[in-house]
Amino acid sequence: MKVVLTEDVKKLGSKGDVVEAADGYARNYLMPRGLAVEATQQKIKELKEKEAKKNRLESEKRDDAKKLKSKLESEKFVIKVKAGENGRLFGSVNTKDIAEAAADKGYDIDKRKLELDDSIKSLGMHTVAVKLYDDITANLKINVKEK
Fold first, then answer.
1. Which of 78, 86, 104, 126 would you call most buried, defined as having the most Cβ atoms within 10 angstroms of its Cβ?
2. Which domain holds residue 112?
């Protein structure tokens, strides 16, 4: 029996695949659990339309991320903090501070997407990576200045 998988099924296929399954397996296991539906022309057509829409949306998100990357990399973000002798900070600059500095310039960046190994503890220019999309990462230029 030909079925369209609505979820990934081990050893059978992934979501959206049209596969041949044993009649009993399809009727007694896959369909009752919502893992598959019978492969009719209408279902196959709906699935292709849904897949095309999903690909189009993903393409738009990727393009938006690329535009945001170019904007972010052309900006310099300034964070003013209290500092002591030799440029050592009282405290440190963390992802929350960087996200707030970006928000001040109108960028909505989630602090969890900032890739900062350790907090910034000195004055000067620093580079911080922010993951915008699956494989698109922008490098922010952070200038830490004394108040």
1. 126
2. 65-146
Which residues, including other chains, have CB under 8 Å from residue 90's CB and lie 6 or more apart? 81, 82, 83, 84
Paired with 78 in beta bridges are 143
Answer for the pair 146, 85: CB distance below 8 angstroms, yes or no. no
pTM of the model: 0.70
Q: Are residues 9 and 57 in the same domain?
A: yes
- Pair of tokens at residue 8: 């990934």
Q: Are 32 and 47 in contact (CB under 8 A)?
A: no
Tens digits of residue pLDDT in 3-36: 999 899 999 999 888 999 999 999 999 999 999 9
Is the domain of 111 the same as that of 75?
Answer: yes
